[in-house]
């Protein structure tokens, strides 16, 4: 569904706590490489209470949009 908030409650605090323990976060998505900017913007825009998602590389599908949907 387009426009739906797919963010899980508490994920920003969880990932922040994980990075405070010395781990690095890497985001993995099946989104097409052409959606890289919008995906990064989405991740940067996730703010819950006083937490936001930590920075990390975003690994994406090298396929084009239509191929990534299958």
Automatic annotation (TrEMBL):
Residues 1-70 form the LNS2/PITP domain. One of its GO terms (biological process) is fatty acid catabolic process. GO terms for cellular component: nucleus. GO terms for molecular function: phosphatidate phosphatase activity. InterPro entries: HAD-like_sf, LIPIN, LNS2, LNS2/PITP. This is LNS2/PITP domain-containing protein.
